[in-house]
Amino acid sequence: MSEVDEIDHRLLRLLREDGRRTFSEMAERVGLSVAAVKRRVDRLKELGVITGFTVEIDYAKLGWGIEAFTELRYPGTTPVADIVRTAATVPEVQEVFTIAGDPDALIHVRVRDLGHLQQVIDRLRRAGDVTGTKTLLVLGSWIRDPQLPRAL
């Protein structure tokens, strides 16, 4: 996208590190005026590059410390929209990734404990046209930067 230059990428990195960063602080870091930084951030929002601001939560401190990924398999005739709809009906499902090949979807779930995970898996198995599941328990994680490609 030619409308986004290196300074915009620097602003995006700064906001990704801390979404509450002030225009003043960003202006100092990129060598622009506060007004210029605000115009650029507003333009990035208008272009749809910035889609919102969020907060990071420590779910373990809220009692939801177990994460897992579950592979879901469906009959070959199942529409992708039905796969997403089935998984989205389960509140513990955080994300749904429809994928090519086997399995048909990979879902990210967050639960309180292993008994709760079993209940969620049982619910998924009964939902829609699910023909099989495989669950992988998360032991730890590392995320580079889910919003920006590595090259930025």
Kindly state the number of beta strands.
Answer: 4
Low-confidence stretches: none
Strand order of the largest sheet: 2-3-1-4
Give the SSE string. HHHEHEEHE
**Main pleated sheet:** 4 strands, antiparallel
What value does the average pLDDT take?
91
Calculate Rg over CA atoms: 20 Å
The helix content is 25-40%
Distance between the termini: 13 Å
Characterize the overall form.
elongated
Q: Counting H and I runs of at least 4 residues, what is the number of helices?
A: 5
The fraction of residues assigned to DSSP E strands is 15-25%
Structural class category: alpha+beta
Question: What features would you highlight for this structure?
Answer:
4-stranded antiparallel beta sheet, alpha+beta, single chain, 18% strand, elongated
Topology:
Elements: H1 6-17, H2 23-30, H3 34-46, E1 66-73, H4 80-88, E2 93-98, E3 105-111, H5 114-126, E4 132-137
Structural commentary:
This protein is an alpha+beta fold. The protein contains 5 helices and 4 strands. It has helices spanning 6-17, 23-30, 34-46, 80-88, 114-126, and strands spanning 66-73, 93-98, 105-111, 132-137. It has a 4-stranded antiparallel beta sheet with strand order 2-3-1-4, with helices on one face. Strand 2 and strand 3 (105-111) form a beta hairpin. Helix 2 packs across helix 3. The model has no long low-confidence stretch (mean pLDDT 91).
Quick overview of this protein structure:
This protein is an alpha+beta fold. It has helices at residues 6-17, 23-30, 34-46, 80-88, 114-126, and strands spanning 66-73, 93-98, 105-111, 132-137. 15% of the residues are buried.
